[in-house]
């Protein structure tokens, strides 16, 4: 069984080409694959399938808005095997993979996700290094909530970017202070976020940039989260009293650029295809 491994600002994924949606991605299989000791290790899995095939296989109840049966669909799974609606870094790596593997030849196309079709613009897609912009769509502010870390309460804004986020801008936080936080298990209000939430901690905007760390639902702390950088940019702009602008978001795994205009966001950043190979069939079967 073929796989590739890639990352977007060190948010890493196992990519499984499966155009006809034949693979059984049971949660325990995904969790084993993403385990950094028993498996290949990754923050998530990107199954590369046609939208229509996923519907026919019963993986999707129907085609999400803005996606076609023949579109390539990013069937995203978190490292714990759970399904998430959207993954911003995943879409960048997915589009790079499609282009580098000649499954797509157009510089602009739509990637299907459970949160709808995401138009992408591929600026570069070498065999290893890529650069992709994703039209992330509408950024919806859900209202104020809080996160807790080590007994300290952080004010944040709930933001829906297809998946749920709680972005906490702390005016007292510096890049150095951010690095000392323990993001193992931040607390949040389950009444506000009944489906769980991805939580971002960040500095206010300084010279067009913010520094951010993230705890992802279904994964734990990761070195980057694309939807999280969009939520962070929206929260940082709001903190500055503005609802539009361009923000460079610096995460432990690198940096990305987020543009917010008229309530929509665009995410641009690098993608790296690190390796490809074959999974042991016997190993994969032993997980089922
Ligand atoms: N890393 C992703 C987000 C993946 C999904 C998230 N963990 C969730 O459960 O919503 C990104 O780059 O956006």
From TrEMBL:
Q: Pathway membership of this protein? A: Amino-acid biosynthesis; L-lysine biosynthesis via DAP pathway; DL-2,6-diaminopimelate from LL-2,6-diaminopimelate: step 1/1
Class in the EC hierarchy, top level: isomerase
The question of whether DNA-binding is a record keyword is answered with no
Query: What is the name attached to this protein's record?
Result: Diaminopimelate epimerase
* PANTHER family reported in the protein's UniProt record: DIAMINOPIMELATE EPIMERASE (PTHR31689:SF0), DIAMINOPIMELATE EPIMERASE, CHLOROPLASTIC (PTHR31689)
The positions flagged as active site in the entry are 87 (proton donor), 87, 225 (proton acceptor)
**Which species?**
Rhodococcus coprophilus
- Indicate yes or no for the key word Lipoprotein: no
Q: How does it assemble?
A: Homodimer.
Q: Which family is this sequence assigned to?
A: Belongs to the diaminopimelate epimerase family.
Query: According to UniProt, where does the site described as Could be important to modulate the pK values of the two catalytic cysteine residues lie?
Result: 165, 216
């Amino acid at each position: 069984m073929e796989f590739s491994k890639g990352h977007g600002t060190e948010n890493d994924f196992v990519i499984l080409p499966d155009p006809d949606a034949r693979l059984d991605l049971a949660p325990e299989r995904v969790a084993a694959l993403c385990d950094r000791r028993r498996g290949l290790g990754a923050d998530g899995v990107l199954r590369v399938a046609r939208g229509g095939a996923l519907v026919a296989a019963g993986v999707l109840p129907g085609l999400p808005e803005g996606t076609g049966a023949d579109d390539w669909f990013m069937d995203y799974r978190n490292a714990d095997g759970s399904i998430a609606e959207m993954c911003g870094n995943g879409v960048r790596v997915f589009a790079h993979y499609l282009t580098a593997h000649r499954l797509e030849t157009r510089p602009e196309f739509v990637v299907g996700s459970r949160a709808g079709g995401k138009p992408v613009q591929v600026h570069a897609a070498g065999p290893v290094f890529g650069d992709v912009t994703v039209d992330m769509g509408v950024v919806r502010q859900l209202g104020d909530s809080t996160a807790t870390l080590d007994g300290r309460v952080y004010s944040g804004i709930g933001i829906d970017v297809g998946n749920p986020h709680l972005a906490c801008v702390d005016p007292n936080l510096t890049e150095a202070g951010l690095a000392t936080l323990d993001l193992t298990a931040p607390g949040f209000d389950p009444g506000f976020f009944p489906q769980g939430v991805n939580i971002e901690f960040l500095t206010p905007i300084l010279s067009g940039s913010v520094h951010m760390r993230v705890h992802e639902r279904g994964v734990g702390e990761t070195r980057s989260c694309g939807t999280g950088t969009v939520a962070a940019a929206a929260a940082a702009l709001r903190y500055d009293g503005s609802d539009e602008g361009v923000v460079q978001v610096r995460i432990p795994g690198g940096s990305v650029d987020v543009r917010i205009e008229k309530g929509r966001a665009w995410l641009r950043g690098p993608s790296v295809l690190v390796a490809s190979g074959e999974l042991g069939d016997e190993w994969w079967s032993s997980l089922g």
